[in-house]
Design a protein that fits this description.
This protein is α+β, with helices and mostly antiparallel strands and 104 residues long. It has one domain. It has four helices and four strands, in the order E-H-E-E-H-H-E-H. Strands 1-4 form a two-stranded antiparallel ribbon. The protein has a two-stranded antiparallel ribbon with strand order 2-3. The longest helix is centred in the middle third of the chain and has 16 residues.
Length: 104
C-alpha cells in the first residue's frame, strides 16, 4: 500500500511543532521495533527503541548511527532480518536553524 493511503481514507490533520536549537527528530519504519532477537528471541519493541533514542540523544549524529546499527545487529544475532529497517534522525543545531531563518 502506498505511503499516505489508508483503507478508511480519513481526513488528514496538519500538526505544527516548534523546533528549538538542539532538538532532534527521528522518523522510522516498524522494522527496527519488530525485529526478533535478544536472549529470548522476542521483538525489540517501540518502548526499547524510545529508551535507546532518549539515551543517545545529544550525541553526535554519526555516533548515534553507529550505536543504533550495532544495537540492532547485536539484538538480531543470527535471526534473519524480517523487514526493512529505516531510521532517520535530523538534528536542529544553530547552523540548521540559521539556514531556515535566512530563507524566510
Amino acid at each position: 500500500m502506498p505511503i499516505g493511503v489508508h483503507i478508511k481514507q480519513q481526513p488528514f490533520n496538519s500538526q505544527t511543532v516548534k523546533i528549538n536549537n538542539g532538538d532532534s527528530i527521528y522518523m522510522f519504519s516498524d522494522g527496527y521495533a519488530d525485529q526478533f532477537g535478544g536472549p529470548k528471541g522476542k521483538k525489540f519493541k517501540y518502548k526499547q527503541l524510545k529508551e535507546l533514542l532518549l539515551k543517545i540523544n545529544g550525541l553526535p549524529m554519526q555516533e548515534q548511527k553507529l550505536i543504533l546499527n550495532n544495537t540492532i545487529l547485536d539484538w538480531r544475532g543470527k535471526n534473519p532480518q524480517i523487514d526493512d529497517i529505516i531510521l532517520s534522525g535530523i538534528y536542529f543545531g544553530k547552523e540548521t536553524l540559521k539556514i531556515k531563518n535566512n530563507k524566510q
